[in-house]
Amino acid sequence: MHVVAFTRSTPDTAAKVEVGANGQPTWGDAATVVNPWDEYALEEAILQAEATSGQATVIALGDELHNEALKHSLAMGLNAAIRVEDAALNTGDALAAASAAAAAVKKLGDVKLVICGKEAVDTGTDQHIFQMARKLGWTLLSNVSKILSVDEAAGTIRVERQIEQGKQVVSAALPAVLTVTKEINEPRYPSFIGIRKASKATIPVWSLADLAAEVPSAGVSVTGYRNLPPRDVKLEMLSGTPEEMAAKLVDLLIEEKVL
Amino acid sequence: MTTVFAFIETFKGVASPASWEAVAAAKMIAGAGGASVTALVFGENASAVASQAAQYGANAALVCEDATLAQFRLEPFAALLTALVNEHKPVAVVAVSSSRARELLAASAADTNSPMLSEVAALTVGADGKLSAERAVYAGKVISDVAVTGGGTQFVTLRSRAFKAATPDASAQAAVTTVAPALSEDQIPTKIESFEEEVGKVSLSDAAIIVSGGRAMANNPKDAPAGTADAAVWKAQDGFAHTIQPLAEALGGAVGASRAAVDAGYIPYAHQVGQTGKVVAPDLYIAAGISGAIQHQAGMRTSKVIVAINKDPEAPIFKMARFGLVGDLYAIVPAITAEVKRRLGK
Ligand SMILES: Cc1cc2nc3c(=O)[nH]c(=O)nc-3n(C[C@H](O)[C@H](O)[C@H](O)COP(=O)(O)OP(=O)(O)OC[C@H]3O[C@@H](n4cnc5c(N)ncnc54)[C@H](O)[C@@H]3O)c2cc1C
Ligand SMILES: Nc1ncnc2c1ncn2[C@@H]1O[C@H](COP(=O)(O)O)[C@@H](O)[C@H]1O
User: Fold this and answer.
1) Could you give the ipTM of this predicted complex?
2) Ordered structural domains, chain B, with CATH
3) Residues in contact with ligand 1 (CB, 6 Å cut-off)
C-alpha cells in the first residue's frame, strides 16, 4: 500500500518567537524541528507501508525551510519526499493549501492512506487536514490512537480513536485521511546511515502548474503578526507557615474575584 | 432574512455549555447587520436542546434527530451542514472549537469553498460585514491577525472561554424547524463499532479553575506500600489523587499536569497543559511543583490569575504568577484546601 504522511518544519518548541522587523515571526538562530505531532504520523506511515510491503512518501507544503523536516523523515525511513511550493500558496489561506495538498496526493496516483500529525504547533490548527480530506473526497478519521487493521483488498480500515468523551472503535472505507495522537507509537530516531542517505537526497519541488491543480482561494489572509502584550502582573510573594499563606491566599483570591 | 448559524454541540442529547458562547458570538455578528441567530442542533434530543438555545439568544433553530446523527460522525454532520449552508446562505457559521467542531466547520467550509477563521480569541465585524479576528500562533508566543477578504459564508471556530455566554432568559422562544438528514446510513463510510466512555473526565478547556501538579508530585512524603514496583509513580499518583484532586474539588475546578508528570506516568495525557497538551485560559490557575518551562507556559499564560507553589524561589513559574508561595506543595496545598473548605464551605 502507498501511504503518504505530511510534515512541516517548526521552530524548536523552546525557541523564543517574536515578530521581527519585517513583520514576520522570527526565532533568531534557534533550530527548527519536525512539527512534534508529525513524528507520530511519520512513524505510522513507515509501519503501515512495511506491514503491507508498500511504500511511504512524505510531503511538505512551503519553502525550503521544510526540507529539514523532509530530510528528517527520509532519515527515519520514509521512501520518498516531495515539496510543494508556489507563490500562490503564501497567503495563509488554509483552503488553498488543502487543495494543493489534495492535488499532490492525487498526482501520486495509488495512495490509499494519508497520515497527518494532530495539528501544527506553529499555526495551531488542523483545519487544512480536514479540508484536504474533503477535497480528496476521502473518509476522515481524526485522533486515531491505534490502527487495528487495514484490508487494502476489501478497502476497509478499523481504528481506535480518542474523542473528548472517551474511546471509539470505528470501521471505515478506504481511502482515508487520518490524524494520529501520541498514543499510537514511539517514533524512532533517524539512524546514522539514514541521516547520511537523506543528506544526499535531492527533493523534487512541485508547483501548482506541475499539479495541474485548480486551487480555490477561500479569501482569508493573515494581515499581520503582533507580539503578546506584556503580561502585566505584579508578583506578590506570600510568607509564613503553610496555614498563614493559605489564609492570605484565599483572602487575595476573593479580592481578585476569582473565588 | 439573513441569519447567522450557531452550531450547538451535544453529547448524549446534552448541549456542551460552551455552545452558548457560540450563540453569543453569533448574536454579536448578527447584531451588527440586523440578522437573526439560528441554532443548529443535530442528534438525540435536538428539539429540547433547541429550546434551551433560545434561552441563550437563538431566534430560530434547525434540528435533525435522525438516527444517523446519534453520535458525531463527520460525514453525515458535514453533509447536513453543507446542505443547510447552501440553502440558507448564512452570513456566518459559528462554533466553539472542540475537536469535532473544528473538523465539522473546516469540512463544510471546504465543501462550499468558504473562508474560515479558526480558534479565534477575538472577533471584529467590519462595516461590510466581513470578519477579522485575532488568534494565537506559535504556541501562543505570537498573535496573528487574520481577515476574511473573499465572499461567502464565513466559518468561525472560537477558542473556548474567549466569548461570554448570555444570561439565559427562561421566557425566550425560538421557531424550531425540523430538517431531513443529507445522507442515509448506507452513504456513510464510517461505522462506530463500540464506544467506551471515560466518566468523570473533566474538560480542561471549559474549566474556570485548574489546579495542576508537576514532576514534584513524586516528592510525596507518604511511603509507598511495600512491594510497590515503582515508588515514585505510586507517590505521584497518590499525590494527584489525595492532594491535588481535593483542592480542585473544593474549588469546583479541574486537574491539570505538566508534561513531565504525564511522561513519567503519574497522570493520563488528557490532563497535560501546554504546547503539546491543552491550551487553557481559566480564571484561576494554580501550578504546584511545576517549574514553568516555556512549553508549559504556552498552555496557560492567558490564565487570569496564576498562583505558583514551588520550593525553589527561582523557578521561572514565579515570573508569570500573580501570587507566589515558596515551600513544599505537600504542606501548602492541603492547607489551602482546608482554608477553602472553611471559608467557602464547599
Ligand atoms: C517538544 C516539547 C513539547 C513539550 N510540551 C510540553 C507541554 O505541553 N506541557 C508541559 O508542561 N511541558 C512540555 N514540555 C516539557 C517542558 O519542557 C518541561 O520539561 C516540563 O514542563 C517540566 O515539567 P515540571 O515543571 O513538572 O518539571 P520540572 O521542570 O522538573 O519542575 C519541577 C518543579 O517542582 C519543584 N518542586 C520539587 N519538589 C517540590 C515540592 N515538594 N514542593 C514544591 N515544589 C517542588 C521544583 O523546584 C521544580 O521547579 C515539552 C517539551 C518539549 C521538548
Ligand atoms: N506546510 C505543510 N506541509 C505539509 N504538511 C503540513 C504542512 N502544514 C501542516 N501540515 C500537516 O497538517 C498538520 C496541521 O496543519 P495546519 O492545519 O496547517 O495547521 C500538520 O501537523 C501536518 O501534518
Assistant:
1) 0.88
2) 3-187 (3.40.50.620), 209-344 (3.40.50.1220)
3) A 13, 36; B 214-216, 219, 258-261, 272-277, 289-291, 293, 295-296, 299, 309-312, 315, 328-330
